[in-house]
Amino acid sequence: MKNKRFAIVLDTKRCIDCKACTVACKTENHVPLGTDNYRNWVGPEPLRGTYPNLGQTFTPSQCQHCSNPPCEHVCPTGATTVTPDGIVHVIEHKCIGCKYCMTACPYDARYYNEEIEAVDKCTFCSQRIYGENGQLPACVETCPTKVRVFGDLNDPNSDVSKLLAKHPSRVLKPAQGTKPNLYYLI
Amino acid sequence: MSSFLKHRPSLPLWLGLLSIGVLIGVAGALNVLINGHAQVYNVTREVPWGILIATYVFLVVSSTGLCLLSSLGHVFGIEKFEFIGKRAIILAIITLLCGFGAIGMEINHPIRLAIYAIISPNFTSAIWWMGTLYGLYLVLLSGELYFLMKGMHKGAFTMGMLGFIAAVSAHSNLGAVFGLLEARPFWHGSFLPIYFILSALVSGGAIVSLIVYFNYKQSGTPIPQKYEAFFDTLGRLQTLFLMVLVFFVIWKIIPGIYGHPPEKYEATMAMLTGPLAFNFWFFEVLLGLLIPITLLINPRTRTPMGVMWAGISATVGIFFMRYDLVIGGQLVSMRAGTADLRDGLLHYVPSITEFAIVIGAISTCLLLYTLAEKFLPLDADEH
Amino acid sequence: MSRLIDKKLSRRRFIGLSSCTLATAVVGSQVKVLRALATSGDISAPVAGKDDSIFTTCGMCVNKCGVIARVRDGVIRKLDPNPHFIKSRAMLCARGNAGVKVVYDPDRLKYPLIRTGARGEGKFRKATWAEALDLVAKNLNTIADKYTRAGVMFASTEGTYQDHFFNQLAECFGSPNTVRHPTLCLSSNIQGFSATFGTNPTPDVLNADYIIMSGANRSEALITPDSIDMLKGDGGRRKVIYLDPRFTKTAAKADKWFPIKAGTDMAFILAMINVIVSEGLYDKTYLQNNTVGFDKLLPHVASYTPEWAQDECEIAADDIRKVAREFAEAAPKAVYYQGRRSSFASNDTQMRRAMAILNAIVGNWDVKGGMLPNAGIKLTPHDYLAPWYDDVPERIDAGSVAFLSEKDGSWPVVQERVLAADPYPVKGMMIYKQNVLSSVPDRAKTLKMMDQMDFICCIDITMSDAAWYSDVVLPEATYLERQDPIESLGGPVPVAVFRQPAIEAQFESKPCLWIMQELATRLGEEIAETFDFTMDEYIHHQVKNNPQILTDLKEKGVYFERTEPNYGSTLGKRLKTVSGKIEIYSQRYADKGLDPLPVYISPTKIPAGKYRLIVGRHAFFTHGTTANNAYLHEIMPENTLWLHSAAAAQAGLTHGQTVKVRSSVGEETLNLEVTDKIRPDCVYMAHGFGVLSKGLSNIYGKGGCDAALIETKYCPISGNAAMHETLVEVVPA
Fold first, then answer.
1. Cβ B335–A61 below 8 Å, yes or no?
2. Could you tell me the residue ranges of all domains in chain B?
3. Do A43 and B336 touch (CB under 8 A)?
């Protein structure tokens, strides 16, 4: 069977910065409390314009699950690795906690989890998507306005493939050559 | 100043001070073991590498420098440098081990490193190569020391030659640990591997001047003519290294600000005018470069004592060069909205525990070297 | 799962035993009917899907979204949105997700507590339930004997579904003095719209093409499904116009934001009406057939020109004209969204009237994309005969405002009159989860009111400020640990929901029903009799005419009869107004001596050096109840005072500086946030901080409390507190 290429397509115009995705992620993935500990986030971008002509955009993000992931290249013990379906993840017992991947990631997508004693990051909620009910990642499912759409880019009929076909999109920091798999609709 | 040196601390006081330093380090290490890294270190998810990484780089740059300088003698046959062999190599081993200690305290699972670096190596990782090459380098240094202590010159030469190659490989590779990170424009590129080798020479020159000076100072006898000449040569050589280093520093800065290259510019400005500016101008430029060059370039101050003072000044400066390099590369946030609103930068100040471990690592170095000096026959057998 | 059933059975047995003693006294009560209907006792057993997934309803805010609790090894691991729950479009917000930490919160109340130190000192001792309940009953009876039963006031929260039991106890105990949230919330809104339409309709946000929101901050003060529906979907041609003195996240999403001068919304609305009627942008036949008093509206709004409004609201006359024309153009798929929010000014009811009239004249009543009447799911109510007490006077706030709610009263009036013992003393206070010290304006006054009480009992899940000042604190089981009755959530597409326990109640916490039953037992046979039922019996009775409700609730966590509003169901029929039509002119108001058409009152001028204090919400907090939640606390660890950058520069204040905010009733200290996201004549602070209770360990000592600054002002028609009429000064701390 053909491998999947999981991706998320985001429509930031729908994001209201309510933080549902960040709390859902923390509870789903047992991310410890603490302001440094998180797998995903909503970045309020700086206020545009001057009063009273103002504008602001909210950009949710997380690990980009790059096709060319620098974190994987730099990991000395191969603790960071990529599944055949394109999920970049950390094999906890191999992680030496050197945090090289954290300095290598251009998206600040990683943190050191003291509870699991390893660097931790978004896994597209693999426990959910491969679970027996085949749930969506927590951030995708819980979102009030459904900013994120999750799916398989190798399936031309998936929602993500259709959205990317229909709309122009961008990725974050394309010049890094990381080939991210989080797409932002323009 | 010279009167102060004449009344230098007696050995017991010196050992006592170093022991306190070591104990401070041990207390820091215990604090980490008991409370965990996150609780006692000030490193964050965005500035994950702190002063311990800087200290590690400083200590291994010293080790590499000592190896390179000593190889001038017994590898490249520059006779004036031969007598420093044993002392330089033993200190190279000590600084390397203490460097490993510092990084061992920074990374969370050094034991996993030992296991998985062997059974699950990742050959694209500069840290894997760093560990491997420095491991090899340690073996070669130990061999070299063994042959030197046994007076087996052929073996020492072979080991020295291989050690030289390992030192250059390992240290330029350490530069690559930073230089290969495309995400960090302040570090990225071929500059750091090359720069690291040069700065190792400066470090080595500075520390060798200290070893030789204090060795003879301690013996209480006036410095013989022969060593006066050695200091003169070392001083001239060090001037050259330092001037090349100035050239490197300038050419690191200019591309960092010219045309405001994204992220590189902010990091460079953090160093020139931002939170690292005092470190840069006072420690790096004044202590690290201007004072040593001034002392060394003038024949009247290029005395053994002048060279020694230049060495101390440069060594302190180099520590801050490492610190600013490691921290500066991380101060620019990887994404909008997380940095401090005032200066647009992230912030890092080492915690007390981090300082304690740095004090411990450096004290251990000095203590071990003092003991080696006391108990091992380190004077070169004249031949 | 079987373990949970066992647990439930033992709980049932316990209740059964306690009611046994009363069984003989039950004669001719409704309870027999209830009991007869209860068949299997199957409700109390959690209906688990796969992997112990339990359908229930969120209890974090007013929206009550569908939740699936994922339980493993007796621990709630995750709360997921219920995909069947159409009202919230299958979502769960930050608070909903953070509900896990409501259960596993080190700060939660674990045992009944009895105060040992002075009030507010925070010294309590652990007590047994029997001891605590005996003490409560004793005090209630003592106060009743001394001051009549009106001497005990009952303040209740909303949305736990068990608040009905609390209010039932209040009624059966015999106190007329019950207060709830509406007069701190939306009672003026309900009043103004009901006076016009006979009901408070719901805007069809999903289908409206043109939406004007006045201060209803839907991207932060989340209301389902409006918060979701207001965002444009594929191919949407919706336009959102947003009026707020603050640049909120709704402003960020709106097509146009007007930083309207606080308290002048009515001027904007009247000017819009002026444009629409003077330019003839309405359907005359429609108005003639469906409304009364349109002819009186024409002369009434003649002077309310856009040019006049421009000076009042500081929105350009041309912009007002443009919005009015676009609104009329988009009608009937155009709504002036009244939303659900607290009221800001003491003329709020008339402002809501103006909103309702504007909606009415563009003919958006009960059409797609317009203002829709609400419906509910029919449940059989639990009837009981409340005992009658001859000597109980009428409500303490009776006669204070034009339209006082019999059940809810007017909180600001109650606060003032209890304090003045006018016309009679109120010396006892029963509180059910309403954090009165955080929600009622003028905290110092509320504290004085509590100080003069002989006895205060608070039922809550954490040590709220109200609990902190109570004499007896009773720990309630959280919404994830209770079986709650079925509740109908009204709206154009009504749904029915209930709650099932995901896990056993932790520590010694108990559901409200159990606490009420135990209290009732101690308060006398007549009261106890009205509570002689189990939750099973109660729920089966609720669905006796439609058992499908319970089946659906068990199978998919929600029951609904349609997925689309039933458009036009009221057209051509009598509305619930006096005339049966939409009342532009209100004879009812005229009869009461009130303005039959909304008359504008300009807000007080703000003197130099003062700012209007405005309130507002964030999507991650519910009023004064969730700021201490560990997950939510991380998002906003403390509140700040927003001040416009120009105003800050003028006052010589800088970003991050600690400042004192002073009103005529209080002073609070917090950090200044200099921002362009607010009008220069206003300051704003988030609600829920500056707490008094040290039992809220995450937020104690953090930020400032808005309720400590807001003066007691209220609407003379609805009794609704006016939140935006307080002027403050800001000085460096």
1. yes
2. 42-350
3. yes
Q: Taking residues C556-566, report their average pLDDT.
A: 95
Tell me which residue in B44, B125, B131 faces A74 most closely, judged by beta carbons.
B125
* A117: nearest CB among B108, B334, B338: B108
| pLDDT tens per residue across span C124-164 | 999 999 999 999 999 999 999 999 999 999 999 988 999 99
- Which chain A residues contact residue B38 at CB under 8 A? 34, 36, 112, 114
Q: Do A98 and B338 touch (CB under 8 A)?
A: no
Asked if the Cβ–Cβ distance from A47 to C77 is below 8 Å, we say: no
Identify which of A36, A73, A77 has the shortest CB distance to residue B45.
A36
On whether the CB atoms of residues B366 and B383 are closer than 8 A, the answer is no
CB distance C631–A52 less than 8 Å?
no
Instruction: Find chain B residues with C-beta within 8 A of A61's C-beta.
Output: 335
Residue B188 has pLDDT above 90, yes or no: yes
Interface of C with A in 421-480 (CB under 8 A): none
Contact B120 A77 (CB under 8 A): yes
Position B339 confidence tier, pLDDT thresholds 50, 70, 90: low
Q: Which of B334, B338, B346, B348 to mutate to test the interface with A (most CBs of A within 10 A)?
A: B334
Q: Which domains are delineated in chain A?
A: 6-185 (3.30.70.20)
Residues listed for chain A? 186
Interface test with A, best of B112, B177, B327, B333 (most A CBs within 10 A): B112
Mean pLDDT over residues C65-89, rounded? 94
- Where are the domains positioned within chain C? 113-184+378-482+511-534, 201-373+567-591, 611-732
Domain C611-732: state its class.
mainly beta
Q: What is the pTM of this model?
A: 0.92
Residues with Cβ within 8 Å of residue C73, at least 6 apart in sequence:
none
What does the alpha-carbon distance between residue C112 and residue C124 come to, in Å, rounded to a whole number? 9
DSSP string across chain A:
-PPP-EEEEE-GGG-----HHHHHHHHHTTPPSSTT--SEEEEEPPPEEETTEEE--EEEEE----SS-HHHHH-TTS-EEE-TT--EEE-GGG-----HHHHH-TT---EEETTTTEEE---S-HHHHSSTT-PPPHHHHH-TT--EEEEETTSTTSHHHHHHHHS-EE-S-GGG----SEEEE-
Which tens digits make up the pLDDT trace of C415-442? Answer: 999 999 999 999 999 999 999 999 999 9
Q: Under CATH, which number does the domain B42-350 receive?
A: 1.20.1630.10
Interchain CB distance below 8 Å, B180 and A74: yes
Q: Could you give phi then psi for residue C641, rounded to 5 degrees?
A: -100, 120
Which of C87, C97, C103, C633 is best to mutate for the A interface (most A CBs within 10 A)?
C97
Strand positions, DSSP E, C449-605: 455-460, 472-475, 484-489, 495-499, 559-560, 582-583
ipTM of the complex: 0.96
First CA to last CA across chain A, in angstroms?
33
pLDDT of residue B227: 79
User: Is pLDDT at C301 greater than 60 in this prediction?
Assistant: yes
According to DSSP, the residues that pair with C79 across neighbouring strands are C69
CATH of domain C113-184+378-482+511-534: 3.40.50.740
> Which amino acid makes up residue B310?
A
Residues of C in contact with A54 (CB under 8 A): 247, 251-252, 257, 676-677
Q: Does domain C201-373+567-591 have CATH number 3.40.50.970?
A: no
**Which range has the worst mean pLDDT, A70-84, B6-20, B28-42, B130-144?**
B6-20
Instruction: Select from C268, C266, C270 the least CA-distant residue to C300.
Output: C270
Q: Residue C676 and residue A54: Cβ atoms within 8 Å?
A: yes
| H or E stretch at C164 | helix C163-173
C-beta atoms surrounding B358 within 10 Å: 27
